[in-house]
Write a structure and sequence with these properties.
By secondary structure, the chain is α/β, with parallel strands linked by helices. It folds into 3 domains: about 5-85, Arc Repressor Mutant, subunit A (Orthogonal Bundle), CATH 1.10.10.10; about 95-160 and about 260-295, 3-Layer(aba) Sandwich (D-Maltodextrin-Binding Protein, domain 2), CATH 3.40.190; about 160-260, Periplasmic binding protein-like II (D-Maltodextrin-Binding Protein, domain 2, 3-Layer(aba) Sandwich). Helices cover about 40% and strands about 25% of the residues. The protein has 12 helices and 11 strands. The longest helix is centred in the N-terminal third of the chain and has 25 residues, at about 60-85. The radius of gyration is 23 Å and the shape is elongated.
């Protein structure tokens, strides 16, 4: 018969990777965590972790056990909340996947405020152009650019944001003037690497221009932003990032504009966890407060 203490130790060790860190989180000795893992592996007849000097990493069987254990964790927390009338303690790891621009321009500025409010929640921020699977537990929360259409997911819209075409003032001074959209055919552009884009909403160029000369591509928004500042060419950038930069200038803002959306998405099972709800609530309010900034382009 499986023991909840063993499963709890398994979950914490899978998240922490070290006995000492898992024990500290559970308020038990590292040797106790080790005993729980050994007992669980014996009960199931499989090896759940690979041991190395660097710590513990999940085996294939270990990865299979994670979602089942987290479902049990969710139910245990729900029982506690229902019977005691109290929320479960706001502690543990919460991994949130966000588009890179939002992570750089907005979310990262509020991390210290979040830690002040929830010091025992360890927030992990994954900011890139990859779509993370909530069902496979690649993230607990995802902020996406569109509402999901499949899966047992809870989703709500956070707001809209604008992107505009930007160039450095030095680039504008050195190159042909841009008075109309037709003039853009004489200029160089910066964009994403198409086959590395997993969010179709990031394909701004294809939506607005049929043919442009792209001289530099990167899946990193930071790299694109720096290339624009260095005068390599023009690029679509998030207004809430680029509008504050005095070295940059918006190109044809009344004619060229891309509007996109941000959605918060959580798996139904994870949404029941107090720590996940706390993260969702905090950053939903952040995006609400930042709405005017998200729509800024100049």
């Amino acid at each position: 018969m499986l023991n909840w203490s063993d499963l709890r130790s398994f979950l914490e060790l899978s998240r922490r990777g070290k006995l000492t860190m898992a024990g500290k989180r559970l308020n038990v000795e590292p040797t106790t965590v080790g005993r729980h893992i050994t007992r669980l592996e014996k009960e199931l007849g499989v090896q759940l972790f690979n041991r190395s000097p660097k710590g513990y990493s999940l085996t294939e069987d270990g990865h299979k056990l994670v979602p089942y254990s987290e479902n049990i964790e969710t139910k245990v927390n729900s029982i506690y909340q229902s019977i005691s009338g109290k929320d479960t303690e706001l502690s543990g790891i919460v991994r949130m996947a966000v588009p890179e621009g939002l992570g750089i321009g907005i979310i990262s500025k509020y991390i210290s405020h979040f830690k002040e409010k929830h010091p025992s929640i360890d927030l992990e921020l994954v900011a890139d152009t990859r779509a993370r699977s909530l069902s496979k537990r690649e993230a607990d929360i995802a902020i996406t650019l569109a509402r999901p259409t499949i899966g047992r997911l809870v989703a709500w819209k956070l707001g809209d944001y604008n992107l505009a075409l930007y160039a450095s003032k030095s680039y504008i001074n050195k190159n042909n003037k841009i008075k109309t959209i037709k003039d853009l055919s004489k200029h160089q552009f910066i964009s994403y690497i198409e086959d590395l884009i997993e969010f179709p909403q990031l394909k701004y160029m294809q939506d607005i221009f049929k043919e442009v000369s792209i001289v530099f591509r990167s899946n990193s928004l930071q790299a694109q932003y720096q290339a624009v500042k260095d005068g390599v060419g023009l690029a679509f950038l998030h207004g809430f990032i680029a509008a504050k930069d005095t070295e940059l200038k918006t190109i044809l803002p009344k004619q060229i504009l891309a509007k996109r959306e941000y959605w918060m998405v959580v798996h139904e099972d994870m949404f029941q966890l107090a720590r996940v709800k706390a993260v969702c609530s905090f950053f939903t309010q952040v995006l609400k407060n930042e709405q005017a900034n998200l729509l800024r382009i100049i």
